Amino acid sequence: MTKQTHAFQAEVKQILHLVTHSLYSNKEIFLRELVSNASDACDKLRFEALDNAALWEDAPNLEVRVSFDEAARTLTISDNGIGMSAEEAAAHLGTIAKSGTREFMAKLEGDQKKDAQLIGQFGVGFYSGFIVADKITVETRRAGLAADQGVRWTSEGTGEYEIETITKAGRGTDVILHLREGEEEFLKTWRVKSTISKYSDHISLPILMKKETWDAEAAKQVVTDEWEPVNKASALWSRSKSEITQEQYEEFYKQISHDTEAPLAYTHNRVEGRSEYTQLLYIPAKAPFDLWNRDKRGGVKLYVKRVFIMDDAEALMPVYLRFVKGVIDSADLPLNVSRELLQESRDVRAIREGSTKRVLGMLESLANSEDEAERAKYAAFWKDFGQVLKEGIGEDHANQERLAKLFRFASTHADEGVSLADYVSRMKEGQEAVYYITADSLAAAKHSPQLEIFRKKGIEVLLLVDRVDEWMLSHLYEFEGKPLQSVAKGAIDLGKLQDEEEKKKAEEVAESLKPLLDKLKESLKDRAKDVRVTTRLVDSPACIVVEEGDVSGHLARLLKQAGQ
Ligand code: ADP
Ligand code: MG
Predict the structure, then answer these.
(1) Mean pLDDT throughout 348-359?
(2) pLDDT digits over 124-133, tens only?
(3) pLDDT, tens digit, for every residue of 3-12?
(4) What is the rounded (10 degree) CA torsion for 11, 15, 18, 19?
(5) Which among 239, 406, 389 has a CA at the least distance from the CA of 317?
(6) How far apart are CA 156 and CA 294, in angstroms?
(7) Which residue's alpha carbon is at the smallest distance from atom 3 of ligand 1?
(8) Mutate to test the pocket of ligand 1, among 19, 126, 207 (most ligand atoms within 8 A of CB)
(9) pTM for the whole thing?
(10) Nearest residue to 311 (alpha-carbon basis) of 303, 301, 319, 321
(11) What's the gap in Å between 501 CA and the centre of ligand 2?
């Protein structure tokens, strides 16, 4: 193929413009992104080679080499991973396949800091090379293709790129950055090495650089021809806890989640028994922009004996814990396991159950901590993720009770943070049910006339104002043996709380008002099932209630909004 010039997809052009014009803080993350792509490419080779050993060619040792050429002002990141064909290079380095690009740009444009960390979050890490380079050359050959089927991709990061066929003996990819004026720091061993150990220490492949020695004659450090590893090259989760610092745990989290903030909590365990696996799971501090997409891929990577198998293996986590990030490394699953097989595997079920328990355990220890700061962390978590966690009530019956204890609500007692246990501890003598009201907003709930009698009697009522609450209530009927009861349904039965005298008076009044009630019933007959005298109101003259067992007024409104 002779040289061909292609235009970037419009989104890529916009990204490149932003990258080159506004990302300066943390510019060194380009190295993390390129090393992570190299490592991904090696993972992919290892995986494809399970079915096709010929892909190994004669280079069985996967590795990443980082080198620079001072005279040419280039920094090169090479890997002997899967490589790219010409079509793949055009597709992966010229278009953006993933959704979320628009959110990414909005975030970048709005963010005063213009933090380059953001870039990895949206699957556009490759382009971060243009922060420090005014030209990038990629020389690559897909594993399995002939040496003369190599590809050279070149771009100056403006509107277009060029592709031509080359001969490349070794499989894999060289990314050659032609550094901009002023970026000479990346032509120094110490600078590159320290950046790699900061961001990429846990990468499970060796990352090699040329060794430097002191040349006494020249009185300076000189680069030799000998390669040495600059990272620890053991998968972080396979090391023992005592060897891992909090910073390393956090850096690993940022790498796999592309989050810029440290995680809220993490758990790292080796599980033995019927099913053997290692889990390293993180709870993010903030909700990602696509949390509400239930089809969104999960955040847990599956490895089998340290071999990467797949990203976002949904079967490893219930949908309502889709915000959890991390790694699960199984000792039992076959290396060629497919997504379909995962769904049916008993080992996977055991892993999912075990991991769910761990995550709930992390949340419980925050929520119930003696330490106020930890409890505040839980409150912050609940703000961002509470609605998602509520989905678990219907999805995960086995853990219903544990989940219900983690829930926090508003009530007539406090605007937030009320747990069902708090509520039960404040129940009045003789009170048998947990009372709640559902509404569109806290203000609407608080001003509902249906609360009057409860206020008068000093009985707490939960104010449920999240969209998922109605749905949650269709799965959660009771807490610790106390039924959950709507204050807006049927004739409320206050049980022992009702005083006998009031009841009798109401009956008498009802009797005497019968002619009026009949008239009202007649004139409202198409719109109301019944008209009753009530003791539930204190100040308001009338209120609407729904029959026990009917959809609540609030749910009816939600369904109507949804066009049903
Ligand atoms: P992401 O890594 O999130 O997919 P990037 O912008 O970092 O996004 O990379 C885009 C794509 O380019 C990768 O998904 C991969 O298909 C391809 N790619 C990048 N670097 C390499 C490499 N060193 N070897 C093989 N493919 C690569
Ligand atoms: Mg990447």
Answers:
(1) 94
(2) 789 989 999 9
(3) 999 999 888 8
(4) -170
(5) 389
(6) 39
(7) 123
(8) 126
(9) 0.68
(10) 301
(11) 73
